[in-house]
Amino acid sequence: MTINSQHYVLTAAHVWQATELFPTIGLSLTSYESWFQIPRDGISAHTLRGVRFGELGPDLALLEISSALVPRIMAHKSVLDLSQQRQAFLTDPLALDLGIWAVTGMSEAISEVRARPEQRKFEADVQGRAFFSGIAGTLEVDGYDYLDVGADMALADVPPSFGGVSGAGLWQIRLSLSKQTGQVSWTGQKRLTGVAYWQSEMRNGRRVIRCHGPRTLFERAWAQWGLPG
Question: Which partner from 33, 85, 95, 215 sits 20 to 30 angstroms from 226, CA to CA?
């Protein structure tokens, strides 16, 4: 994503912390086998985190990527303008009951990681998905807002755990209803409204994926990281 022409990766702080023992970080850029390495010490990290990692954050990291690496990434990936997403939130916040919601990320439960010690490497087949749902609850603590996305674990193709989804984006997808036909259609509008970082235990066949909400992302974190307004 970009902020004033500078490129970043937005994730959870505990995901960034988990890379401390590795000299490089790999990005999967294509649907076929690929491996693009970024030296970890070449990444400038802005973090926002609480005393410990858990169900209450904050738990966010903004990773600044060198401009020299951007052409290779953009050859395969589209880039989100985070400044535009912030402006949309500030000028026209969408109601929580408007449209549907999606957490887009990779679940460890439906992916496969294989160790190759003789080659000193790991191989991974990862599955990226969009998990569509609604907002099951909201929370505000110390000025940070949180959105809980509900998951019915009995539904087909729902993974048994959302471990690995931390750092995934939470998107609000606006729909419209035709009064003439009663048909629901997508307006083409989608907004990044948060970042997933924690899942609950399963209760009564359900979990929630907790995400930082837009006020945490576009106001609290934005100000703390000194990002341009």
Answer: 95
